[in-house]
Prior knowledge:
46% helix
Amino acid sequence: xxxxxxxxxxxxxxxATGLCAASASAQTISPAPFTQAQSxxxxxxxxxxxxxxxxxxxxxxxxxxxxxxxxxxxxxxKRPVAQLYNFIHNSMPxxxxxxxATDAYVDIVAFILQANGAKPGDTPLTATIDVKVGxxxxxxxxxxxxxxxxxx
Length: 152
């Protein structure tokens, strides 16, 4: 094999590996099954009922992180959205699970999904959706997301 043939074989292998890696990291469903209106309502509910423990930027503090790679690659990233909803509904706010309206919990989940890079669409989120969280989110919070207004 000539040096040119070795170079070309190596080049093709590197390019193919890069293409496979790029397609594996971009396997999110877009748009996700929630609406912008749900996320906007979820932001309001999150601020009122969750931010005191989980932080204004979903960064955690005294409670688990709800945004970023730690969340996206963690336990809930591997589970269906319905399990995330059920966990939040049954246990949050802390020691007051089930105290919010069902729609409030669904909207909070939509807000968390969007905070993790999921893009809203036209299909409303439901409490029973069986799509894996990790198939919707990237773990990258959109620029300006935390500071954007809830009144659009």
